[in-house]
Specification:
Blueprint (H helix, E strand, L loop, with lengths): L3 H30 L4 E8 L11 H7 L3 E7 L4 E7 L13 H18 L3 E7 L3 E8 L2 H13 L9 H11 L5 E6 L7 H10 L1 E8 L1 H4 L6 E5 L6 E5 L3 H25 L2 E6 L5 H14 L1
Parallel strand pairs: 3-4, 3-6, 6-7, 7-10
Antiparallel strand pairs: 1-2, 4-5, 8-9
């Protein structure tokens, strides 16, 4: 039985994300993702009027006659949300915690998916996949998914993105639209991300807090790593320390961004102190133009 106050909070969140999905993003999402579920069906001989871009040159060369590839559109798409519930998402210095931001964008994507009659599922993970919610349709399914995001307590607070990508590829056989929603504070998962992007349509939504990007100068502070529990006292009044941190964090995030661009994976950066509308609109517009 849910606590009444928590239930009211989830209900308010449910209403907010559904309204934003319907009012702000509905047309953009459909034009950016619908029609991309194209599967190869067969090869047949070229007929007058066929698009020459569909010619299968290998088959044509072997047979001595022009052949074209025939495709059909998948009317029903599958959306999978990879939701990072590790300890670093219990951090936030402005309007909300990173986990709240993660829940907000996950809820909107779920509503957008069912609005266009797509299935939506999720994998909640930390240092391992913790809960798999199989893809389904319908508003009641989204309500269940949002409840899980708010109430699920991970058994581990560390992060292993490589492991959840391996789990995804084992559980989801057919091509899906996959959104990795995480702060991506992990290493060694780049190769797995590349392999997953070849099987699925991948988008990385990185949830960030401005205090991570630029360490504030507020003197001596106690810092506790929410994933390992380690505690350190640092002097944020030191300009040298702040510059070293800002340089390190900037290079880390920039190098990851360059990797994703090279791999052909879309990236959206969302911050706890900023609305999600503009960054997500840019994503949908970029995909629509690419189509």
């Amino acid at each position: 039985m849910l606590d009444p106050d928590l239930l009211k909070k989830i209900q308010r969140f449910h209403f907010k994300t559904r309204r934003m999905a319907n009012n702000l993003f509905a047309g953009n999402y459909e034009s950016a993702f619908k029609g991309r579920g194209i599967e190869f069906a067969e090869v047949r001989e070229y007929q007058p009027g066929d698009d020459i871009r569909t010619i299968d040159w290998n088959v044509s060369a072997r047979s001595g006659h022009p052949f074209v590839k025939v495709f059909h559109e998948e009317r029903e798409l599958t959306v999978i949300l990879l939701l990072d519930l590790s300890g670093s998402h219990l951090f936030g210095t402005r309007n909300k915690f990173k986990r709240e931001l993660l829940a907000e964008v996950a809820g909107m994507l779920a509503f957008l998916a069912i609005r266009t009659n797509d299935k939506v599922g999720a994998i909640l993970f930390s240092s391992r996949p913790e809960k798999y919610i199989p893809p389904k349709k319908g508003a009641s399914h989204v309500w269940h998914l949002i409840q899980e995001i708010f109430t699920y307590e991970p058994q581990n607070l560390n992060t292993d993105i490589e492991l959840v990508l391996t789990y995804l590829n084992r559980m989801v056989k057919r091509r899906a639209y996959v959104f990795l929603i995480s702060d991506c504070l992990d290493t060694g998962f780049e190769k797995s991300l590349q392999l997953t992007a070849k099987k699925h349509d991948m988008t990385v939504i990185r949830v960030l807090d401005p205090a991570e990007k630029e360490l504030p100068g507020v003197g001596l502070i106690n810092l506790r790593d929410p994933e390992t529990g380690q505690v350190a006292i640092i002097n944020t009044g030191s300009k040298r320390l702040r510059k070293a941190w800002n340089d390190y964090y900037g290079e880390y995030t920039d190098s990851f961004s360059r990797f994703l661009k090279k791999a052909g994976i879309d990236l959206v950066d969302l911050y706890t102190d900023k609305p999600v509308v503009e960054p997500l609109t840019r994503l949908f517009e970029t995909r629509r133009k690419r189509l």
